[in-house]
Amino acid sequence: MSVRVELVAVGTELLLGQLTDTNTVYVAQQLAASGIDVLGTHAVGDNRARIAATIRAALERVDGVITTGGLGPTVDDLTKEAVCDALGLETELHEPSLRQMQEFFAAMGREMRENNRKQAEIPRGARVLENPRGTAPGFIAFDAAGKFVASMPGVPREMKPMLAELVIPYLRERFAIREAIYTRFLHTINIGESEIDHRIDDLFRASENPKIAVLAHEGQCDVKIMAKAASREEAEAMIAPLEREIAARLDGFVYARDDESIAAAIVRLLGERGKTLGTVESCTGGRLASALTAVPGASAVFMGGVVAYDNAVKIHELGVAEGTLAEHGAVSEATARAMARGVRERLGVGVGIATTGIAGPSGGSPEKPVGLVWFAIDDGEQVQARSFQFRGDRDAVQRRATVMALGLLWRALAPR
Amino acid sequence: MSVRVELVAVGTELLLGQLTDTNTVYVAQQLAASGIDVLGTHAVGDNRARIAATIRAALERVDGVITTGGLGPTVDDLTKEAVCDALGLETELHEPSLRQMQEFFAAMGREMRENNRKQAEIPRGARVLENPRGTAPGFIAFDAAGKFVASMPGVPREMKPMLAELVIPYLRERFAIREAIYTRFLHTINIGESEIDHRIDDLFRASENPKIAVLAHEGQCDVKIMAKAASREEAEAMIAPLEREIAARLDGFVYARDDESIAAAIVRLLGERGKTLGTVESCTGGRLASALTAVPGASAVFMGGVVAYDNAVKIHELGVAEGTLAEHGAVSEATARAMARGVRERLGVGVGIATTGIAGPSGGSPEKPVGLVWFAIDDGEQVQARSFQFRGDRDAVQRRATVMALGLLWRALAPR
Fold it and tell me: Cys-Cys crosslink for A184: which of A225, A233, B37, B240, Cβ 3.0 to 4.6 Å?
């Protein structure tokens, strides 16, 4: 069975470009994963007639509408009235919701105002969606033909559990949806989207369920394997052979599955190999250390880092020879190697990684243009040094150089 | 005069929650600033009938529709056909666009395929929107009543200049829109949204044009002053007295205007005062250095930093006494002070700033819970040390501690 819905986000602020409507993308993603088809999304201002017209038009195309926002206590909150207009309903007071709100305000030590009372009213005959995290309940209201409008608050902290615990289970039950979409991510680095396409194109074309998609980010690509199945176990059995085949074809580039980041994979590998790490950064300016220290438990393997912006720091804190800097310059293979060795020795770590480059906008030259970055990794036995030329503005060069440093570090640590 | 539009973003990927539709929020923001009213936004999949129905429904409510996406060369690109369906038009070949595309492919050294040819077709009678940055031109098509549909490619790099240079000027000219909205931002730090509301509430209520809004971010608030005026000069004259009054009431909290970040304000203040800076970070793990080095020209005042994750780094690289760590612990006022002095002396900088705290999820204790962070700033003459208790997960603690460090640093450098 299936159900088709459209989404309506309510709020004038969504039309002014002042904020991004993250609710809609979240709801769409959760519904898609739950086997519920989203055919369109809309944003509309705090205008009763326009909200009602948008809902009515959608109900002519699909089985139901899911709204977010506009359930608060102020005069600008008009979603409930608009839903009633669209469905030809009156509101009625829902006593349990009123009691729950009274308790909520009492627990917060705040006084409940008269305009909060209207939040306990729901369209006649609607199912109440309880909201223990806030004041306004949501609801699912119906028209004479059985089409539905599910309305949730716009506050993400209240909306997300309501969607997961009440709205999606209701829809899956009512429309007898047995299957859901289960997803496996394979995260790759150091390989381009077109090369991945080239290597797995036949699988991509042959496979309908599971379906394969390649999503490119900055310097990284994710291969997404999506299986439509009645359970996680059934989906895993469908995904496993395809995952093995793709992993084999992308051998040496897949750094993690599902939720693990490249930095988390590096922290895990360091732990497995009993090694410690130190960083020294010039052009990436602390971003590499930030990425690594974002991982819970990083302190077990990441001892510390140096942001060596000024040459004096390179000389005094890392022991880079003044002659090296004078002869080759700060952005050079020799300096990168000396920095990596310096941080390894100074911090007494197993692996040292260095970045030095020209982030721009100034500081470039014909021989060393903006975007040139040298990387070196010193593990005490051998040193790898490489340079890359990155495009873009200062922020792009810094971001791309950080991803590349992580990719090179992962490659140096990964089992062969 | 005025014009009212709705936006339609085309692409099935927008309905799956796989990516956020950044085009719609961008277009909405640019149109609002240009005095063009956006009454609704929609996203719809790559389905000709549904795109056409969405456009037709919108044209019954407003003067025109602006679409993004679906103008590419593949069979999934159906926006042009759907616009023709909605307006009752045929397509026609636009010879200049065909020639321009041929030249584009020749310059790229790529072969132009037959399916690219269809990109040079436009709805009969439409205005062509040239696209020198890509292959597909955009267009503005019309129905018999003069309502319009402006269609732009979905690639932001192509869409943004087309909007600014062609679509907005056309609409302002045709609908005789003389005014635009000019905005001044005052960025504050170290003061909460409710305190700002309290201080400027009367201005907020009294002022219709310019309008005032307060936007809260993490640890920072922006006061936005929006003037509707016929020119930047006229707007500035309207904004200036209000800006002076607000700045006076928020004295000591406003760190910058318009596009300047808190880190950029710090780099500017350091330059004005002829001082250099060094950072030493434990729990913020490089984020403070990253924020500072994101500023172009930071290298003139930011000498470098240390990410002192392990205690050994605090001892050997910064000269923090082992006794201090043993007696007070790594997260303590004494250690923060010793770290700030250590980085100032070791890097030979004018100002040293230190962060040390418990980012979590583990490492907390009843006396020193997760989220406790000590900050110290040492300028050689005096040392300021403060602690804060931040809420949230590891990422939230790291982000909030970084913003706080920047706020404290700004306050220490700002003129009194």
Answer: A225
Instruction: Determine how many CB atoms are found less than 10 A away from the CB of residue B207.
Output: 17
Distance of CA B390 to the CA centre of its chain: 24
pLDDT, tens digit, for every residue of B272-289? 999 999 999 999 999 999
What's the number of CA atoms in the CB half-sphere (13 Å) around residue B341?
A: 16
Handedness of CA B41, B47, B53, B55 (dihedral sign): positive
| Mutation site, A309, A356, A400, interface B, largest B CB count within 10 A | A309
Least confident of A151-155, A408-412, B215-219: B215-219
**pLDDT exceeding 90 applies to what percent of chain A?**
76
Of residues A102 and B151, which shows the higher confidence score? B151
CB of A69 closer than 8 Å to CB of A154: yes
The CA-based dihedral angle spanning residues A50, A56, A61, A66, taken in that order and rounded to the nearest 10 degrees: 80
> Cα separation of A8 and A335, whole Å?
56
A chain contacts of residue B288, beta-carbon cutoff 8 Å: 286
What value does the mean pLDDT take over residues B5-16?
Answer: 93
Q: Which residue has the higher pLDDT, A86 or B416?
A: A86
CA atoms of B85 and B123, how far apart (whole Å): 10
Chain A residue with CA closest to B402: the answer is A290
Query: Smallest CA–CA separation between B302 and chain A, in Å?
Result: 7
What confidence score (pLDDT) does residue B265 get?
A: 96
Interacting residues of B31 by C-beta distance below 8 A, sequence separation 6+ = A17, B5, B37, B38, B66, B168
Q: What is the DSSP letter of B142?
A: E
Transcribe B15-67 into DSSP letters: GTTSS--HHHHHHHHHHHHTT-EEEEEEEE-S-HHHHHHHHHHHHTTSSEEEE
Distance between CA atoms of residues A325 and A342, nearest Å: 14
* B61 neighbourhood in chain A, CB within 8 Å: 50, 53
Domains, chain A: 4-174 (3.40.980.10), 180-257 (3.30.70.2860), 263-413 (3.90.950.20)
- Alpha-helical segments (H) within A223-261: 232-249
CA distance B95 to chain A (A): 32
- Residue A29 Cα, gap to closest chain B Cα (Å): 4
Of B44, B304, B361, the CB nearest to A307: B304
Contact A25 B17 (CB under 8 A): yes
B344 sits in the region (left: phi over 0; alpha: psi -120 to 50; else beta) called alpha
Contact yes or no for B347 and A29 at CB 8 A: no
Residue B113 pLDDT more than 80?
no
Question: What's the gap in Å between the CA of A121 and the closest CA on chain B?
Answer: 27
**R_g of chain B, CA atoms, integer Å:** 28
pLDDT band for position A74 (50/70/90)?
A: confident
Do A294 and B39 count as a contact with CB atoms less than 8 A apart?
A: no
In this structure, what DSSP letter does residue A126 have?
A: P
- CB contact under 8 Å between B297 and A362, yes or no, is yes
* Interchain CB distance below 8 Å, A15 and B32: yes
Identify which of B264, B260, B224, B268 has the alpha carbon closest to the alpha carbon of residue B243.
Answer: B224
Q: Which two tokens stand for residue B126?
A: 């439409």
Q: What pLDDT, on the 0 to 100 scale, is given for residue A205?
A: 84
β strands within A143-290, DSSP E: 148-152, 180-189, 211-216, 220-229, 254-257, 277-281
Distances (CA, A) of A171 to A68, A149, A243, B53: 16, 11, 31, 26
| Contacts A359 to B, Cβ<8 Å | 293
> How distant is the alpha carbon of residue B178 from its chain centre?
27
Quick one: which of B232, B133, B129 has its CA closest to B171? Answer: B129
Partners of B15 on chain A (C-beta within 8 Å) are 28, 32, 38-41
Query: Which chain B residues are Cβ-neighbours of A25 within 8 angstroms?
Result: 17, 19-21
* pTM for the full predicted model: 0.85
